[in-house]
């Protein structure tokens, strides 16, 4: 299973001591992932991590904000992030792509959405666009609900407020967390109150709640969204086999919706959600592993993956 931060240091120390004691023993290649604290990104990263471990890689997963992750990718402390949203995070990512320090490996989710939303009862009352918000400011308590501080969605909303776009100059962004924001949404829905909140798909909120995405005539949120896998250029040059896998790991949006529902809504353990899905979906896993090998390069990836699967049984 994936080594998370609390166990990573001891695991690496043990590996280092073993290598020092047995000079002829080669260390397994390492892949250091990072992910923002979003359920979909968390499960997707865990799936990739477990799959690579079955191929003989050592993996770790760090949780941090996107801004910190990008700095870590440039600095070499992080190898891969699978949760860069376009176009909403393009301004953060593009300068680093232009320098050649980072590479956009693949669009791992297509048809995604990331923008301001309202619940169905508010939509039915006539709020269909961000341009409709100011007219009903009191009903919304002059508040736009976001997630963790520093998130680009919060920043887009704050920029709209600062520029008085759509007449939102006297509104505020309520920064919280994914859990906190959705708890507020549920409480407001139960009380018949109105909420404007940061919504996105894939996510279980689109299954559990009647989420309606607001029109955006000024184009603050950009066009249709995709989610990209981004990696350090140095890492990709060093690990072309992992690069080949990352290029092929494209996740159907309905699959990630299901992951998020199991992990975040049903509260199943992260490792179980990822591991059970991998075991139950050999066809898609096989597609991701075409042209890839085991970490040592000696075995086709699917064969190595199945050997590891059977050894665990």
UniProtKB/TrEMBL annotation:
Xref: CDD domains: PBP2_ChoX (cd13640)
Signal is among the record's keywords: yes
Assigned keywords, A-Z: Signal
Gene Ontology molecular function, alphabetical: choline binding; transmembrane transporter activity
Keyword Signal included in the entry's annotation: yes
Protein name, UniProt field: Substrate-binding region of ABC-type glycine betaine transport system
Domain ABC-type glycine betaine transport system substrate-binding: 30-279
Signal peptide: 1-28
Lineage: Bacteria, Pseudomonadati, Pseudomonadota, Gammaproteobacteria, Oceanospirillales
GO terms under biological process: choline transport
GO cellular component, one term: periplasmic space
Coiled coil: none
Organism whose genome encodes this protein: Halomonas beimenensis
InterPro entries found in the cross-reference section: ABC_choline_sub-bd, ABC_Gly_betaine_transp_sub-bd
Gene3D superfamilies in the cross-refs: Glycine betaine-binding periplasmic protein, domain 2, Periplasmic binding protein-like II
Pfam family, one: OpuAC
Superkingdom, taxonomy of origin: Bacteria
